[in-house]
Specification:
Length: about 450
């Protein structure tokens, strides 16, 4: 077993090499022990994605949990946000077997407390890791009970209570499920809509025969863009492997900046909950903060990562949070992220208006962004120090270290963060003009790579 299998927010590794049934069993035992220490409820909800290894690993994990006297509810095939729904609705801790957008050779486990509260390295994952590697004494006790419960329709019903799409105009929607769990949940959600749905890659196939289920990479959205233009669709939706992230394509086939979707949803949530807090991560567009404030809300800046955003949502009672990576968090959804709920907000906004999606989103597209650019470095800390020294003499810029290094000027900003798992620096640049963005981008990249 490799310690690297325990990531910042979940467990993820190569099937058969790192993630085996024995490991899953040991993790189930460790999770049960952890839950008892935390005085959590004595039942665990388990969901699984469409990867061939998921049922076997989930079964081994369940055996580990029940060996410690805790009960298990298996909800079977599920998107990650469906598992969060189950953990929230039933108020039970949960485990989701998925490697999200990773290639077919991988699998993983996302864990949460009761009420879908996150478990990351800073909130329990390190303890669980310690228990796995140390081993857990197998106390003699009654074995827990495993039962099954299908929660798909309850999940769909709950989403429909949060976004009213009952009165939308007729729409034509293309959905690319990427052979992931969107192919399971989307039909149940969209069958009730006043919409013609064109399905792309809805067959559940963990080998991902068409393209990676990773819509943050533009090459994986090409099929969706072509289909939207071919069918004259109003909107295109793309989900990642476990369908907890959503990306949009407008009626022209153009990719929608995730910050624009954050702004759109924020403006809608502020109509429902006037004056509320809205969270955005620090690589989101400046437009998000501006839109929130223009709509009477308070914008709260966060580090990148779901555990930070969910923690901040709890501390500030924020009604919504958006990440540039396509994760969208809702207070009404137990502060958890749901790609499907974000998609329904976009469809509701489109269906309530006679305008096209590009027209609706135009007020939110105020700046020019570089997108995330990765650079391989031998010493991330030293490289970041070099960049800081380069800009700190400039009296017209401000710096902060909320997450990596952020350098801000009147008409541009950039953020530089080190990867948690690889020798990489991740750069995001935004500016008021494309020329200014390119100038700042090239200047920073030259300093990093020289």
């Amino acid at each position: 077993m490799s310690a690297s299998i325990f990531k910042a927010y979940d467990i993820r590794g190569l099937v058969d090499e790192e993630l085996t049934p024995d490991f899953a069993f040991a993790t189930g035992v460790a999770f049960a022990r952890f839950l008892e220490i935390e005085r959590e409820p004595g039942t665990v909800v388990i969901g699984e994605d469409m990867r061939p290894s998921s049922p076997t690993l989930a079964t081994a994990f369940s055996a580990g949990v029940t060996s410690q006297g805790l009960d298990v509810i298996r909800i079977g095939l599920a998107s990650t946000d469906m598992l969060y729904f189950a953990a929230g609705k039933l108020n039970l801790p949960g485990a989701m077997f998925t490697a999200s957008h990773n290639p077919a050779a991988y699998n993983g486990i996302k864990l949460c407390f009761s009420g879908a509260r996150p478990i990351g390295k800073e909130s329990g994952l390190l303890t669980i890791e310690k228990f796995v590697y140390e081993g857990t004494p197998m106390a003699m006790r009654n074995v827990g009970v495993e039962k099954s419960k299908n929660m798909l329709e309850e999940y769909v019903d709950h989403l429909r209570t949060l976004v009213d799409v009952s009165q939308i105009r007729p729409l034509k929607i293309v959905i690319d499920a990427g052979n992931g769990m969107g192919g399971y949940t989307a039909p149940a959600v969209f069958k009730r809509l006043n919409a013609e749905v064109i399905e792309l890659f809805f067959e559940l196939d963990g080998s991902f025969p068409n393209h990676e289920a990773n819509p943050i990479d533009p090459k994986n959205l090409v099929d969706l863009q072509k289909a939207v233009k071919k069918h004259g669709a109003d909107i295109g939706l793309a989900f990642d492997g476990d369908a907890d992230r959503c990306f949009l394509v407008d009626e022209k086939g153009a990719l929608v900046n995730p910050s624009s979707l954050t702004s759109l949803i924020a403006s809608r949530e502020l109509v429902k909950y006037p004056g509320s807090n809205i969270i955005y991560n620090l690589i989101s567009s400046r437009a998000v903060k501006e839109v929130v404030e223009e709509n009477g809300g308070t914008a709260v800046r966060s580090r990148v990562g779901h555990s930070y955003i969910k923690k901040l949502m709890a501390e500030t009672d924020a009604v919504f949070g958006g990440e540039h990576s396509g994760h969208f968090y809702f207070r009404d959804f137990w502060k958890a992220d749901s790609g499907m709920l974000a998609a329904l907000h976009a469809i509701a906004a489109l269906g309530e208006s006679k305008k096209s999606l590009s027209t609706i989103l135009k007020p939110f597209n105020r700046y020019h962004s570089s997108g995330e650019i990765n650079s391989t470095v031998s010493d991330a800390a030293a490289s970041m120090e070099t960049i800081q020294q380069k800009f700190e003499a400039d009296s017209d810029v401000e710096m902060d270290h909320l997450d990596g290094l952020t350098v801000s000027a009147k008409d541009w900003w950039f953020n530089l963060r080190a990867s948690n798992t690889e020798p990489l620096l991740r750069l995001n640049v935004e500016a008021s003009t494309e020329g200014r963005m390119e100038k700042v981008r090239d200047e920073v990249l030259k300093a990093i790579r020289s």
